[in-house]
Amino acid sequence: MRITNIETFTVRLAPPPTQPDDLRVTSVGLTRIQTDQGVTGYGFRLTDASKLELQVKPRLLGKSPLDIEAHLQSGALAGCPSVEHALWDIAGKAAGLPVRSLLGSARETMPYYLTCVWPGESDQSHIAIEDQAEQLVRYYEMGHKRFKIRAWRPDPMDDVRVLEHVRKRVGGRDKVELMLDRTAHLPGWIWTYEQALQVARGLEAVDANWLEEPFARDDLASYRRLAEEVDLPISGGEFAQELPIFRDYLVHQAVDILQPDAAISGGIWPCRKAGVLAEAFGVPCILHGTSGLDWTTTMQVGASIASCSMLEYALIFPPLTPEETVKNIDRILKKPGLFTFKDGEVLLPKAPGLGIEFDEEAIEALRER
């Protein structure tokens, strides 16, 4: 089997929303690889056009789509994770198996959590603490069991108070699991050590699962210091793009939970390698998440990592539900309903490859040219 064509394009599913807080999916980016045996693979992100023409096509056209490790080592896939994902989609379809089965997993469902960010001010100061908590309770009543919010409020303890309200309303960790994410990668958003310690102590009191990225991503000394000082897991690693960066997190004992991303890390195979590296250090690997079509890619690699105890669905924009957010994607699927959620678990796709069965005629009709 040989690669005959590679292209990337946008599919317009619906007109752009007219309201800024309406964050339903109205378009998707795709990368498509075709082969001489009629097997077509998709990645669910756009690929940079110049990289596709100058870097990817010259090295991949005419080559086997199954030689994924060699393509990674050659540099052909650098900065092009959607191409790597499409190669795995082909591999799974050629074998008649979901990608997770190729990676050694027979999981059929997985626990998941929702990462919620309210439309409006980025620091969430436009919404009352009580209203945030009430929305999480509503999601809980719909059957969702785990939640994470971003800790961007001017007073860091206000975000902890949101989780305190939820804990009081719903009950202990056996009922609902709670996490907090600082996402400290922008100037002005990085806490002092004292602020991070205060928040971590507050999260200990509400029995949270973890505190995510409280410091600048290269400040491994502060990560380690906090991890040693509190009885609360500290997590990070979502923006690491190379295996040595994951190694540094682990060697320096900077995190209690490693969080590679199946795209940012370079693709499914590099992400899987990060999971193996974490296993060697005895550190759980719970992947950084995505949403929409791309979440199926995270599902496949996450299911193959034994310590990946849950998947992250990110982002959810209250009051929208996951199903409402992705409803427009049904227009290009053979069967409606992208995901099935039940009692805090998501059904993993059974179709071969990455698990998405497209209506090719619909894609051609809706793609932008």
Low-confidence stretches: none
What average pLDDT do the residues reach?
A: 97
What is the radius of gyration computed over CA atoms, rounded to a whole number of angstroms?
21 Å
- Approximately how much helix is present in the residues? 25-40%
Q: Terminal Cα separation, in Å?
A: 28 Å
Number of strands: 12
Order of helices and strands: EEEHHHHEHEHEHEHEHEHHEHEEH
Any idea what the shape is?
A: globular
User: What structural class is derived from the secondary structure elements?
Assistant: alpha/beta
- Provide the number of structural domains: 2
Given this structure, which CATH class of the largest domain is correct? Alpha Beta
CATH superfamily of the largest domain: Enolase-like C-terminal domain
The count of helical stretches stands at 13
Strand content is 15-25%
Main beta sheet? 9 strands, mixed
CATH architecture of the largest domain: Alpha-Beta Barrel
CATH fold-level label of the largest domain: TIM Barrel
Describe the structure.
The protein has 369 residues and is α/β, with parallel strands linked by helices. It has two domains: 3-98 and 355-366, Enolase-like, N-terminal domain (Enolase-like, domain 1, 2-Layer Sandwich); 109-347, TIM Barrel (Alpha-Beta Barrel). The protein contains 13 helices and twelve strands. The protein has helices at residues 49-60, 68-74, 81-95, 99-102, 129-141, 156-170, 193-205, 220-229, 243-251, 268-280, 295-303, 322-326, 360-366; strands spanning 3-12, 27-35, 40-43, 109-116, 146-150, 177-181, 210-212, 234-236, 257-258, 311-316, 341-342, 345-347. The strands form two sheets. Strands 4, 5, 6, 7, 8, 9, 10, 11 and 12 form a nine-stranded mixed beta sheet that branches. Helix 6 packs parallel to helix 7 (193-205) and helix 10 (268-280) packs parallel to helix 11 (295-303).
